[in-house]
Specification:
The complex is a heterodimer of chains A (112) and B (116).
Chain A (H helix, E strand, L loop, with lengths): L8 E5 L4 E6 L7 E8 L6 E6 L4 E2 L4 E4 L5 E6 L8 E9 L13 E6 L1
Parallel strand pairs in A: 1-9
Antiparallel strand pairs in A: 2-7, 3-4, 3-8, 5-6, 6-7, 8-9
Chain B lengths: L4 E3 L2 E4 L5 E6 L6 E8 L3 E9 L2 E5 L6 E5 L5 E5 L8 E8 L11 E2 L3 E5 L1
Parallel strand pairs in B: 2-11
Antiparallel strand pairs in B: 1-3, 3-8, 4-5, 4-9, 5-6, 7-8, 9-10, 9-11
Classes of the chains: A mainly beta (112), B mainly beta (116).
């Protein structure tokens, strides 16, 4: 499983887009990219995942670089509720492992 | 549909005691994984159970153990508690084995253990 690197913290204004970067330069061809977030006093919550193509869902968009060595989680309009720690995880599936390896994540603050 | 339920939410123990934490997965989910979260080490994988069998284990001492029942409910036990075991213990459920399909891991709110 590839190691990921994220900024420790980021700030955003409410109702503005947020781009959260993640570097995974050692990713292999079968590693998926996941994003989870953890709101204060809660367990992690799944946000989005992808392999090669950009992905969209109701929560966010995931833009994956063509060489797959980096990706960006995009929150289109940040709300106060989006203030959380965001974890970018690279993980392989189909083998005997599959447990997620969390890094330190990016703490996102949203200002009103 | 009810989420992952963990009990108790908070508990305080003293060194040397043991503790049992419980996790009820989302109905229909057969996989339960346990994670430990501390300020220093972050989120670390403990073990995964699927169909009552431990399928995967993290790098934790044998004092940490678990089991899964036929209804998919899971318990984890920590014996001979140490101060360093103070942490938030998180349970996550999945309809299939966590190693099979991405994006299907659902976490509970955790059990916060304090060891004095």
């Amino acid at each position: 499983d590839a190691k990921t690197t994220q900024p420790n913290s980021m700030e955003s204004n409410e109702e503005e887009p947020v781009h959260l970067p993640c570097n995974h330069s050692t990713i292999s061809g079968t590693d998926y990219i996941h994003w989870y977030r953890q709101l204060p006093s809660q367990g992690p919550e799944y946000v989005i995942h992808g392999l090669t193509s950009n992905v969209n869902n109701r929560m966010a968009s995931l833009a994956i670089a063509e060489d797959r060595k980096s990706s960006t989680l995009i929150l289109h309009r940040a709300t106060l509720r989006d203030a959380a720690v965001y974890y970018c995880i690279s993980n392989r599936y189909g083998g005997s492992q599959g447990n997620l390896i969390f890094g330190k994540g990016t703490k996102l603050s949203v200002k009103p | 549909k009810a989420g992952v339920t963990q009990t108790p939410r908070y508990l305080i123990k003293t060194r040397g005691q043991q503790v049992t934490l419980s996790c009820s997965p989302i109905s229909g989910h057969r996989s339960v994984s346990w994670y430990q979260q501390t300020p220093g080490q972050g989120l670390q994988f403990l073990f995964e159970y699927f169909s009552e069998t431990q399928r995967n284990k993290g790098n934790f001492p044998g004092r940490f153990s678990g089991r899964q029942f036929s209804n998919s409910r899971s318990e984890m036990n920590v014996s001979t508690l140490e101060l360093g075991d103070s942490a938030l213990y998180l349970c996550a459920s999945s309809p299939r084995r966590a190693s099979e399909v991405p994006g299907e891991l659902f976490f509970g709110e955790g059990s916060r253990l304090t060891v004095l």
